[in-house]
Amino acid sequence: MKKIGAAALGALLALSVGLTAAAADVSGTWEMTSQGRRGERTMEISIVQDGEKITVTMPGRQGNDMTGEGTIQGNAIEWTITRETPRGEFTMNYKGTVDGDSMSGTVEISGGMGGRGGVEWTATKKTP
Fold first, then answer.
1. For the chain, what are the domain ranges?
2. Residue 81 burial (CB < 10 Å; 0-12/13-18/19+)?
3. What is the pLDDT of residue 16?
4. For 121, left (φ over 0), alpha (ψ -120 to 50), or beta?
5. Average pLDDT, stretch 101-113?
6. What DSSP string runs through 55-115?
7. Helix, strand, or coil here: 13?
8. pLDDT tens-digit readout, 27-64
9. In a designed cystine with 46, which of 1, 57, 61, 125 is the match (CB 3.0 to 4.6 A)?
10. What is the CATH number that goes with domain 23-127?
11. Predicted TM-score (pTM) of this structure
């Protein structure tokens, strides 16, 4: 009987570890706020999730959407947006943590617009 109990306990522990490692569900529309050179900026972003892969669509300053790809592993999220501008190409690398219907992190900006590191952002889920 002890062998059965130990086997059941081992299976339960393996299941609970698997559940905690599952990616958070981030699909939907989010309201994101960050501090920019011109002050606080709030925008709606859209995330489509396929397992651990995510596609993020964000509005650009000129009204054109920017789309990037990234990952969600457990509650750690990251994605990259690359954009062509008159000053050259620049890249925004977003990294953060998801906590239910909110997430927060930093964005590192490099390239044609000049490097800016560690700009903080927060987001709240609007729709599933």
1. 23-127
2. buried
3. 45
4. beta
5. 86
6. EEEEE-TTS-EEEEEEEEETTEEEEEEEEEETTEEEEEEEEEEEETTEEEEEEEEEETT--
7. helix
8. 999 999 998 777 898 999 999 999 999 999 999 777 78
9. 57
10. 2.40.128.120
11. 0.77
